[in-house]
Amino acid sequence: MDMTEILKNQSKETRCYIMSAIMIFEGFKKIDALTEYFGKWNLETLGLTKEDMERFPMPDYTQVVSHLKPISDTKVRDWIITNTYAPVLQSKRADALKTFRIFCSDLCWDVNEIKKSTKLTEELLELSPIDGGINIEDSMINRGSRNSRGAGNGCLFALALMIVSTSIFVYAIS
Q: Quick check: 8 and 74 in contact, CB under 8 A?
């Protein structure tokens, strides 16, 4: 079974949330000639159309995480991590890496699974993160010690980023 078939086993709503997560991190990259191609490829792989995403109400960061968190299929989780981490690596931005770490921490998925996916993504793209790696455990410890007011700032940033990235994505595939 190929990845498209595996992803299509997820509800359409879940696939829209997956695409929303990807768009959050695509927003960190510069738009280039391949942006439109990868956007169309992700939609096709997820079995979605541009119209599906246009009709999907813009979720906030908390909604994205809460909807993706219960996914138990390791292949789907790997696909999500790979496709959200790739634009982080390509952006070479510290804020992108920080947001990705928070995202992984908030998902509460198996740390070793995430590390395996990120390592494979780094090898496939022949890129390394700007600060040496993903330390999900450190992110989880640090987030646990923050107060709720501090945690909210990251969500606000992610929401703003999602809105900007969605606008860029819709413009790019138009």
A: no
How many Cβ atoms sit within 10 Å of the Cβ of residue 154? 17
Sequence-distant (6+) residues with CB within 8 A of 88 are 25, 28, 96, 97, 99, 100, 129
pLDDT in tens, 6-65: 999 999 999 999 999 999 999 999 887 788 888 899 999 999 999 999 999 989 999 999
Contact 97, 88 (CB under 8 A): yes
Question: Phi, psi at residue 60, to the nearest 5°?
Answer: -90, 175
CA pair distance 17, 68, nearest whole angstrom: 7
Return d(Cα 38, Cα 105) in angstroms, integer: 26
Nearest to 23 by CA among 51, 52, 64, 62: 64
Alpha-carbon distances, residue 126 vs 33, 89, 122, 123, 153 (angstroms) = 20, 10, 6, 5, 32
Q: pTM (2 decimals)?
A: 0.78
Name the token pair of 107.
């998902």
